[in-house]
Design goal:
Structural class: mainly alpha
Order of helices and strands: HEEHHHHHH
Largest sheet: 2 strands, antiparallel
Strand content: 5-15%
Radius of gyration: 17 Å
Number of helices: 7
Distance between the termini: 36 Å
Helix content: 55-70%
Shape: globular
Oligomer: single chain
């Protein structure tokens, strides 16, 4: 089902399938990014969600600084896993009510908290779950959340 949707999107020029170094996957094309921006803007307007998303993004910015700092410290081995887990658990606790507010108008935002919690649970026995790129790590899920927020608002990082 999903693959046929991706193939159809590929025919329209919205995505392409590539392979490199034994990995393969789908990626948005330039045309696909433009279409995604159009769809996100329409959703924001239709649901009258812009004020809510702007407010949530404003609160997210400070949480993001904390998470990015903690993940960097983990990657540089400047902090122990237990200390990092505490910092990330606090960030998650602050994010969860924001997610609830967002998901009330934009249901696609539901699920980030679960993914983040799952990553933290795995990190108790394997610290790679904090920042690894080969799994749904805390950092990876957080990064995707950040991308989702800024794409929804039509803004760029930084």
């Amino acid at each position: 089902m999903v693959e046929s949707e991706l193939i159809d999107a590929g025919v329209l020029g919205f995505v392409s399938h590539t392979s490199f170094g034994g990995s393969s996957g789908w990626a948005l094309s330039s045309l696909g990014r433009v279409e995604n921006e159009r769809l996100l803007a329409a959703e924001l307007e239709r649901e009258d969600a812009r004020p809510l998303v702007i407010g949530v993004h404003g609160e997210f910015v400070n949480l993001n600084l904390t998470v990015v700092s903690a993940c960097s410290a983990i990657q540089l081995q400047q902090v122990a896993g237990t200390a990092a887990a505490g910092i990330l658990e606090e960030a998650l606790a602050s994010w969860s009510p924001l997610e609830e507010r967002l998901a009330g108008l934009l249901p696609r935002f539901a699920g980030y908290s679960r993914r983040l919690m799952d990553a933290l649970e795995h990190a108790r026995t394997d610290t790679a779950w904090f920042t690894a790129t080969d799994r749904d790590s805390f950092h990876r899920a957080w990064f995707e959340l950040h991308e989702d927020l800024i794409a929804t608002l039509g803004i760029q990082r930084g």
